Amino acid sequence: MISGLKTLIITILFITTTSSLYGFNSFSGDSTEAGDEIYDGKAQLTFGWFLPTINSSAQLNTKFRFKGLYRFNNKHSVEGYYYALNRSGANISSDSIVFGDLVINLNSSFTSFFKATLFGGKYRYSVYNDSNVETGFSAGISFLYVDIGATVLLLDRSIANEEYSELLFLPVFGFYNRVNLSDNLIFRSNVDAFALNIEKYDGILLDLSIAVEYYFLQRFSVGTSYNVFALDIKFDTNEKGEIKYGHRGFMFFGKVYF
């Protein structure tokens, strides 16, 4: 799953680098020399959501995202975020499955859920920022709370269940990009990598987005973004195993500028 994202990562890197060069070569008036004016809003609040989907395996998915940004000036800003992923479904096992002390036999009816809550903050440094182009890098910390569980109907008609939860600490590194295509149309891209190799945990999480945003009434915008979220973490604690989860698709969002 992770390796399949290389093309997207390279594409966004190319877009960001090209936009940065375009900004340096085509625009003047870097924000460090532009007085007190702050480009792209001093503070921003963003709300995004995916529409719930149901497929043939009776699976329900909901995703919600919240992000807040505050600029000290055109070079330095901070960002906080909250990202909730909930996935649950009813299935018939096509093979024997062992989850902790729970054994799900072939052709058994079972329900399962996966919940991941990602929250944290990061510092952002704009390498270049003016009214048309911004590009920069970010670093910070994130916390990922994972809750996984399953309930199975046994052959004697009794019910058995198992649940595992863990709070993971993740360092955050990424880059971001903004290009004003017109007075009201904005292109943004963002890539964050959450690398983890601490004691009993080893893995990676990637969060990528490419967005187009329509700005109106000087304080509001709406838009859509294509997102890729991939998680692959191995752990050896009181339980031993590997957590893999991923989704990709479009998100709709609204934003308020202050």
In words, what does this structure look like?
8% of the residues lie in helices and 69% in strands. By secondary structure, it is mainly beta. The strands form 2 sheets. The chain has a 10-stranded antiparallel β-barrel. The protein has a two-stranded antiparallel sheet with strand order 4-5. A hairpin with a 4-residue loop joins strand 1 and strand 2 (59-71). The two termini are 38 Å apart.
Which structural class matches the secondary elements?
A: mainly beta
Helical content (DSSP H or I, runs of 4+): under 10%
How far apart the termini lie comes to: 38 Å
Write down how many β-strands occur, each being a DSSP E stretch of 2 or more residues: 12
Strand order of the largest sheet: 1-2-3-6-7-8-9-10-11-12
Q: Which oligomerization state do the chains in this entry correspond to? A: single chain
Query: Strand-residue fraction?
Result: over 45%
The helix tally amounts to 1
- What is the element string, with H for helices and E for strands? HEEEEEEEEEEEE
Poorly predicted parts? 23-29, 52-59
Instruction: Provide mean pLDDT, rounded.
Output: 78
Main pleated sheet? 10 strands, antiparallel, barrel
What would you call the shape?
elongated
